[in-house]
Amino acid sequence: MLSDLYTRRALVWAFANRDFATRYRASVLGWAWSLIQPLATLIVFAAVFTVVFRIQAPPLGNGNGSSYAAFLFTGLVTWNLFSSLLNLSMSQLKSNGELLKKVQFPAWTPILGASIVQLVQILLELAVLIAMFLYLRNVGWTWILAIPILIGALLFSQGLGLMLSIVNARYGDVQYIVAVVLGALYFLTPVLYPMSMIEGKNEILGWIIRLNPMSWYVQAMHDAMYSLVAPSALVIGGLLLGGFLTFWAGFAIFNRWSEDIGEML
Question: Reduced to 3 states, what is the DSSP secondary structure of residue 7?
């Protein structure tokens, strides 16, 4: 796997440059939309869940009150990484179908190229999140742990995206099923609410949420950046290992099933 990735790195970067040049090309605001969209979601959700549902965020790690907007955006950055790579993986394979029929090259290269560009948007969102915490003076050494957490989430999301993209190439209904599942999974991930709202109140729902792998990534990000509490080494190691194994499995499955990708598309 690593050998293939290294050998085809130039082709991956070529697809990344193509996607970077064409994304938002016909838009007046261009890459500003990469921040406008998540910020608009943040404003709407923060207003609804603080005013209407009156959800109280946990205390900030610095002990100076709480901020539901910061809590929500921390979860959104992690969730957006997951959902965007899943959807992008399926759409990229379909959109490059004609090219794959004419030219022989690994079908995963345009997917990884587009994912690199998507990471630029995630990094912009992360920069806004850091600025928000700096304004709140909620700063701690635990921020450094966000790096392995996000790397694990990236590998997990990309591996799952590779699996779903090749299955979707064979069975077109998969993309619609994924859209429904993501909609439900979003509310079964502690993005909008802290786990303290569930624990001790509904054991069945609590177990369902804990069985959701993204709950672990989101919760770890909340701990490291919002609460300034270091997740255990076991948790960090598990998130990295789980992400790597998922990516390895996704890459292997994709290579095995993509031999006749031109005919499938």
Answer: helix
- Compute the distance between CA of residue 230 and CA of residue 40 in angstroms, rounded to an integer: 30
Identity of the residue numbered 107: A
Count other C-beta atoms under 10 Å from residue 240's C-beta.
Answer: 17
What value, to the nearest 5°, has the Cα angle with vertex 100 and ends 94 and 106?
100
Tell me how far apart the terminal alpha carbons of the chain are, to the nearest angstrom.
24
Torsion, CA 127, CA 133, CA 137, CA 142, rounded to 10: -90
Which structure tokens are listed for 229? Answer: 């509490």
Give, in order, the Cα–Cα distances in Å from 86 to each of 3, 115, 218. Answer: 24, 10, 16
Amino acid (1-letter code) at residue 100: L
- The count of C-alpha atoms lying within 13 angstroms of the C-alpha of 95, restricted to the half-sphere facing its C-beta, is 12
pLDDT, the chain, mean: 86
Spatial contact of 120 and 85, defined as CB atoms under 8 Å apart: no
Please give the Cα distance from 194 to 235 (Å, whole number).
Answer: 18
Q: Which position has the token pair 């996607």?
A: 19
Cβ–Cβ under 8 Å, residues 161 and 93: no
CB atoms within 10 A of CB 22: 10
Query: What tens digit of pLDDT does each residue of 41-73 get?
Result: 777 877 777 776 677 889 999 988 888 889 999
CA-nearest of 180, 142, 149 to 77 is: 149
Global pTM reads: 0.89
What would the two tokens of residue 100 be?
């794959």
SS percent in the chain: helix, strand, coil, step 5: 75, 0, 25
